[in-house]
């Protein structure tokens, strides 16, 4: 017998969550970014594909997208799936992808901003933005706002479209957002590969809250912590060294579970909270909520990331970078 959502927790898998929420997923058109094999985005798309009307997988690498599509089709032959090339590190590329999606005939019920910039030494994008913040915040911010009409078109008297930001509890390792370096990256302030990652995840939490507020009930946004997960990306040498320094991995690069505050999840467990955030109807009463272990964990948001003044500042600073404003 499948558990109800009230019984979901740390070990709930995306498969289990999707099975319970199948009736909520049915008929929905869903877009998931960052769906390479071996990651939680792929696992999210895979389980949703069993019930959704349309699943759009988005990423910058055409070969990886094809591998993901093939794997999903192999398991769910009748799936209605579509690929979208989306390079979140390039604002021009984001605009091209948004235009393509806006030309689709279908509305979009759920957007899952799952993709993240790789943890790596300091680097700027073609738009002269710090790459992790560009890929994890500025690009998704632009894409979300540009395709808002598609989301709003899915609204009905009984359904409010959703935007999901896969954030992280790592946002609690930051104490503020450095608005000065958002538009003008400063390598001297790049403390480690985790510094911009933590800030980016804080930006995700702030954006979910602020987007919900500005949308005024027209759409609901949520952020979440998927958990500490050993994906393919963790095998990158820069990431390995950083995670060893934080005590997440031992000297051999293997996950450490001795610290109860940092327990590792499997990829299926890591994708479960995303599925809940995207489809659990009980969350409709709490737009802007932050989830962890498939439950509302808004009380655990770091103070700076729950500050509405910071949310407004971040929104306006990001709009300034983009040179346009967004209204609902």
UniProtKB/TrEMBL annotation:
SUPFAM superfamilies attached to this UniProt entry: NAD(P)-binding Rossmann-fold domains
Superkingdom of this protein's organism: Eukaryota
Pfam assignment, any one: adh_short
Keyword Coiled coil carried by entry: no
Database matches in InterPro entries: NAD(P)-bd_dom_sf (IPR036291), SDR_fam (IPR002347)
GO molecular function terms listed in the Swiss-Prot or TrEMBL record: oxidoreductase activity
Alphabetically ordered keywords of this record: Oxidoreductase
UniProt keyword Oxidoreductase, yes or no: yes
Matches recorded under PANTHER family: RETINOL DEHYDROGENASE, RETINOL DEHYDROGENASE 11
Similarity section: Belongs to the short-chain dehydrogenases/reductases (SDR) family.
Protein's name according to its UniProt entry: Short-chain dehydrogenase
Protein species of origin: Mycena rosella (Pink bonnet)
Upper taxonomic lineage: Eukaryota, Fungi, Dikarya, Basidiomycota, Agaricomycotina
């Amino acid at each position: 017998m499948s558990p109800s959502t009230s019984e979901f927790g740390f070990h709930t898998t995306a498969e289990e969550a999707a099975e319970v929420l199948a009736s909520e997923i049915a008929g929905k058109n869903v877009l998931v970014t960052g769906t390479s094999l071996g990651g939680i985005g792929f696992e999210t798309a895979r389980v949703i594909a069993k019930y959704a009307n349309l699943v759009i997988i988005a990423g910058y690498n055409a070969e990886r997208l094809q591998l993901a599509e093939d794997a999903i089709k192999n398991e769910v032959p009748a799936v209605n799936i579509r690929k979208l090339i989306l390079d979140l590190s390039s604002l021009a590329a984001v605009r091209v992808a948004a235009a393509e999606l806006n030309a689709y005939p279908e509305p979009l019920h759920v957007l899952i901003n799952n993709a993240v910039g790789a943890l790596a030494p300091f680097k700027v994008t073609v738009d002269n933005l710090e790459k992790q913040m560009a890929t994890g915040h500025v690009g998704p911010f632009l894409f979300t706002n540009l395709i808002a009409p598609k989301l709003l078109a899915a609204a009905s008297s009984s359904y409010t479209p959703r935007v999901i930001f896969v954030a992280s509890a790592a946002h609690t390792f930051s104490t503020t957002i450095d608005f000065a370096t958002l538009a003008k990256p400063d390598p001297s302030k790049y403390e480690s590969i985790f510094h911009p990652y933590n800030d980016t995840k804080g930006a995700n939490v702030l954006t979910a809250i602020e987007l919900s507020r500005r949308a005024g009930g027209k759409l609901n946004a949520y952020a979440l912590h998927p958990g500490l997960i050993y994906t393919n990306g963790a095998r990158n040498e820069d990431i390995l060294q950083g995670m060893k320094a934080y005590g997440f991995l031992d000297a051999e690069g293997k996950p450490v579970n001795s610290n109860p505050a940092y327990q590792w999840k499997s990829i299926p467990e890591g994708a479960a909270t995303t599925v809940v955030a995207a489809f659990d109807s009980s969350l409709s009463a709490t737009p802007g909520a932050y989830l962890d272990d498939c439950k509302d964990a808004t009380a655990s948001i770091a103070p700076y990331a729950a500050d509405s003044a910071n949310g407004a500042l971040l929104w306006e600073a990001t709009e300034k970078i983009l040179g346009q404003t967004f209204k609902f």
